[in-house]
Design a protein that fits this description.
CATH architecture of the largest domain: Sandwich
Biased composition (Low complexity): 82-93
Strand content: 25-35%
Low-confidence stretches: 1-12, 14-40, 80-88
Distance between the termini: 106 Å
Region (Disordered): 75-94
Pfam family, one: EMP24_GP25L
Structural class: alpha+beta
Mean pLDDT: 76
CATH topology of the largest domain: Jelly Rolls
Number of strands: 8
Strand order of the largest sheet: 1-8-3-6
Helix content: 40-55%
Order of helices and strands: HHEEEEEEEEHH
Largest sheet: 4 strands, antiparallel
InterPro entries: Emp24-like (IPR015720), GOLD_dom (IPR009038)
Shape: elongated
Keywords: Membrane, Signal, Transmembrane, Transmembrane helix
C-alpha cells in the first residue's frame, strides 16, 4: 500500500517551495491564502446568434492540463405546471445546437464537435501560448439565439480534487494542504515562465533597436549621398550655362 505524506510533511514541503520562490515568503503566503479563500469559478454563459462565431482564448503554459465542459441551455425556463415531474429535462429544439473547435497556438486541432448540445474535452498543453476555443451555430431561419454554458479550467484548477481525496483517503486538512502545495508550485513555475518571457522580449527589443540603428545610419548615408549628387549636378549645370 502506498504511503501518503502527513500534514507536517506537506507543510514543510510548501514552506520550502515558498522559500525558493522568486517572491518574498510573506507576499507569496498572502497570495496563496487569498487564492485559497476564493471559491472556484463556475461556468460562463454566452449567447450565440445562428450563423455567427464566438471565440474564447486562454493562455496556457507547457505541460499544464486543461479541461472544458459545455452544454446548450434551454431558450426559456419551462413552466412548472407543464412538467410531469420535477426531474424531467426540457427538450431542446433542433435549432439549439452548436459546434466547437479547440486549437493550439500554432493551429493544430485538439478537439472538434459538430452540431451537438453538450460535450467535454481535456488535453495537456504541448506548447505555450493562447489556446482558442471557437463556438459557432448553424444558420437557421428564422434566426435563433443559442445560449450555452462553458467551463474551461487549466493548471491547478483543472485537477479533480474529489478523486484525489477518494484515491488517497486523505482528510480535509491534508486535501487543503495538497491544494496549497500545488498552488505554490504553480505560482513558482509561473514566475519562472514570466521571467523567460521577459528575457525573450528584452532580447527582441535589443535586436529591434540594433536593426533600427543600422537602418537610421543607412538612411542618413543615402540622404547625404543624394544631397551630394544634387550639388554636383547643379554645379555642372551652372558651369555649362556659364552662370558660375
Amino acid at each position: 500500500m502506498n504511503q501518503h505524506p502527513d500534514a507536517s510533511a506537506l507543510v514543510a514541503s510548501a514552506s520550502a517551495m515558498a522559500a525558493r520562490s522568486l517572491l518574498p515568503p510573506l507576499a507569496l503566503l498572502l497570495i496563496v491564502v487569498f487564492a485559497g479563500s476564493l471559491s472556484p469559478a463556475g461556468a460562463l454563459r454566452f449567447d450565440l446568434q445562428s450563423g455567427h462565431t464566438k471565440c474564447i482564448s486562454d493562455d496556457i503554459k507547457v505541460g499544464a492540463m486543461a479541461v472544458g465542459k459545455y452544454h446548450v441551455v434551454p431558450p426559456t425556463p419551462p413552466d412548472e405546471g407543464s412538467l410531469s415531474s420535477s426531474s424531467s429535462q426540457p427538450q431542446l429544439p433542433d435549432s439549439h445546437r452548436i459546434s466547437l473547435r479547440v486549437t493550439a497556438p500554432y493551429g493544430s486541432s485538439l478537439h472538434y464537435a459538430e452540431n451537438v448540445q453538450s460535450g467535454n474535452f481535456a488535453f495537456t498543453a504541448s506548447e505555450a501560448g493562447d489556446y482558442l476555443a471557437c463556438f459557432w451555430a448553424p444558420d437557421h431561419r428564422p434566426p435563433a439565439t443559442v445560449g450555452f454554458e462553458f467551463d474551461w479550467r487549466s493548471g491547478v484548477s483543472a485537477r479533480d480534487w474529489g478523486s484525489v481525496a477518494k484515491k488517497g483517503q486523505v482528510n480535509m486538512m491534508e486535501l487543503e494542504l495538497k491544494k496549497l502545495e500545488d498552488t505554490i508550485k504553480s505560482i513558482h513555475e509561473e514566475m519562472f515562465y514570466l521571467r523567460e518571457r521577459e528575457e525573450e522580449m528584452q532580447e527582441l527589443n535589443r535586436r529591434t533597436n540594433s536593426r533600427m540603428a543600422w537602418l537610421s545610419f543607412l538612411s542618413l548615408a543615402i540622404c547625404l549621398s543624394v544631397a551630394g549628387l544634387q550639388l554636383w549636378h547643379l554645379k555642372n549645370f551652372f558651369e555649362r550655362k556659364k552662370l558660375l
